[in-house]
Write a structure and sequence with these properties.
mainly alpha, globular, 626 residues, two-stranded antiparallel ribbon
């Protein structure tokens, strides 16, 4: 018993000691955990750089309020507000309001100049015109505000609608109040679409929500775009539209036609007037949406509910947008979709209604079987068939003017397909001035198509043989350099040197020179980073000699205009702008980038570069180190 007592005493003592040791460790561990970890040198450096970037924007915002160029003032203030929204929401809201005031003035001036240009072109051509639309600055400010501040975005939207209605009333008489909701929803969807393109899907959906309860081509088009990023949300909103449309007594055949687009012909919209005339809009290539069978059936049910409504009694006006002729043509157009996958009883009901309408429609509607009926349903005519139709018309042409016009159509069609023989059709144009203008348009179009197809050899052939501007050649060369850089670095460097030489052929006072040199710098980022700083410095020097250089809105404009035809194609080229290059340089060497930006003498490019530097630090790209 003594031995047992001694053992128990030892066990108690040991367990007590262990418990005391454990408590001591926990206390020490608690003290250690509560003690903040000192920041590393790298973290302190990042914090310092962000503080300096913030100061840079604060200083620029003070300067921007005094910019005489209202477009520059509006853009600068809005972009500064965008960059500061996460760190100082109150200051950002104030800057957004300042930006809006400047944007109002800028857009008014742009509208005035645009109308003057249209009138001048109409005078020269006898009525036709091809214009390059100016940027909508209020829309830009609204889009940036919507990313951060729903309240102020709604405020700006209301102002924009009011101003547009007032402007319309001052030129074409007062607008009915009923137009106001349509305009408001259209503008809302336009901003939401831009947010969606910027991959800000959640905010885009929030901002678009009030417009998605109303049936329109715009709401369906937004949902088709949304479906590519968030199919669940898009299908849910579409299902709600189906239900509300079926219950809406104002829904008609055109409503069904627009609803069908979401599933069967995304981004293609076909409607018919009461006279049977068709109208179509197409925004991108048609790709059938892979929706669930249940959603497709829901469309068929809603469509049949609307389409089988009885016609107005004799003597009663038809209030629908389609009328009886349009209703007949919508059913005729959509019937193949029903026959393919709708329940048999629905198909039979629709066929019966179509036969009943056949006795009351006009002869023109009864005989309609053209492309507008089958577009998006039947395969389009082959290129060979379209070409043969044009050749037949050329054979029947009675004057050289008619033949020239047809050869231009031939050249346009084949150049869009990336066929070099388009140049042969241009050569057949008899009017020398018309031929010269068409040659540049076709050559430029071919070069762009080849780059889109990642065909550098063909694109470079257009640089050698085609009639391209110097800046267009420089851009094509830099793009080809990026394509071949992965497999042939020496060839890429050679192409960049050629692009530099081509850029130097641009007049010193032409804004195209600094744009081309910035494209060179952007190409060097991928091929030879050691030369980027010097290339950007050359662009800064060139910018100081080009009065019209702004540092943004970089694009290539291809224009063709004659008395009978007009076409203008714009291609946005981010590599002509300062934003991308200065954001990247800021991450590499903040101080050096700031010093380089200060080298711009003009307010515009200096502001654009400065904001880009600050954003590079405050809003780094994913995967970028600071």
């Amino acid at each position: 018993m003594k031995h047992i007592g001694l053992v128990l005493g030892l066990l108690v003592f040991v367990n007590g000691a262990n418990a005391q040791s454990t408590d001591t460790k926990q206390a020490l561990s608690s003290k250690t955990a509560s003690k903040p970890t000192p920041p590393t040198n790298a973290e302190l450096e990042i914090k310092e750089r962000r503080s300096r970037a913030r100061s840079l924007l604060d200083s620029l915002s003070t300067d921007a309020r005094t910019f005489r160029d209202q477009t520059l003032r509006a853009r600068s203030l809005a972009r500064i507000a965008d960059a500061l929204s996460q760190v100082d929401s109150e200051q950002a809201r104030l800057l957004f309001r300042n930006a809006w005031e400047a944007a109002e003035v800028a857009d008014q001036e742009s509208d005035r100049k645009l109308q003057e240009e249209i009138n001048q072109q109409k005078t020269r051509t006898g009525g036709g015109f091809a214009i390059n639309l100016p940027p909508n600055i209020r829309r830009e400010v609204l889009k940036l505000a919507a990313r951060h501040d729903r309240v102020i975005a709604e405020e700006f939207l209301e102002k924009l609608i009011t101003q547009k209605l007032e402007a319309a009333a001052s030129t074409s008489g007062p607008n009915p109040l009923a137009d106001r909701p349509d305009e408001a929803l259209s503008q809302r969807l336009a901003v939401a679409s831009e947010l969606l393109k910027a991959c800000d899907t959640e905010r885009a959906l929030q901002f678009a929500a009030p417009a998605l309860t109303v049936m329109s081509a715009g709401s369906i088009d937004f949902l088709s775009d949304l479906r590519e990023k968030n199919p669940t949300a898009a299908d849910a909103s579409y299902a709600a539209l189906l239900a509300s449309s079926a219950n809406n007594p104002n829904s008609d055949a055109n409503t069904v036609s627009l609803l069908s687009s979401y599933i069967f012909t995304p981004h293609l919209y076909v409607t018919f007037s009461t006279s049977g005339a068709s109208s179509s809009q197409m925004y991108s290539k048609i790709t059938v949406a892979p929706v669930a069978p249940e959603l497709r059936v829901a469309f068929f049910q809603s469509a049949v509910t609307i389409l089988l409504r009885p016609l107005p009694a004799r003597g009663q006006p038809d209030q629908s947008s389609s009328g009886v002729d349009g209703k007949y043509l919508v059913i005729k157009r959509l019937l193949p979709f029903f026959e393919q996958s709708a329940p048999t009883e629905m198909v039979e009901s629709l066929r019966g209604h179509l036969n009943a309408l056949n006795s009351v429609i006009s002869e023109n509607a009864r005989r309609r079987d053209d492309e507008s009926i089958s577009r998006g349903i039947k395969p389009e005519k082959s290129a060979t068939e379209r070409e043969q139709a044009l050749l037949d018309r050329i054979d029947r042409a009675k004057t050289s003017g008619e033949r020239d016009s047809l050869y231009i159509q031939f050249a346009f069609m084949t150049s869009n397909q990336g066929e070099v023989r388009a140049r042969d059709f241009v050569d057949k144009i008899e009017d020398s001035e018309l031929r010269k203008q068409a040659q540049r348009f076709i050559d430029s179009s071919l070069a762009n198509v080849f780059l889109e197809k990642k065909a550098p050899d063909q694109a470079l052939e257009m640089v050698q043989k085609g009639d391209l501007t110097h800046i267009h050649k420089a851009w094509v060369l830099t793009e080809c350099a990026k394509i071949v850089a992965k497999t042939d670095r020496d060839k890429a460097l050679e192409l960049i040197d050629q692009a530099t030489n081509e850029a130097r052929r641009v007049e010193t006072s032409d804004p195209a020179l600094p744009r081309a040199l910035i494209a060179v710098a952007n190409a060097l980022k991928l091929v030879d980073g050691s030369r980027v700083w010097d290339a950007t410095f050359d662009a800064v020097k060139a910018a100081n000699s080009a009065e019209g250089f702004t540092g943004e809105d970089g694009e290539l404009v291809i224009r063709f205009q004659s008395k009978g035809q007009a076409s203008i194609r714009n291609k946005t080229v981010p590599d002509f702008d300062l934003d991308g290059i200065f954001r990247d340089l800021a991450v590499q060497d903040y101080e050096r980038a700031v010093e380089l930006a200060r080298g711009f003498q003009a307010e515009g490019p200096r502001a654009v570069a400065t904001i880009a530097i600050a954003r590079g630090i405050l809003q780094p790209k994913k995967g970028a180190s600071q």
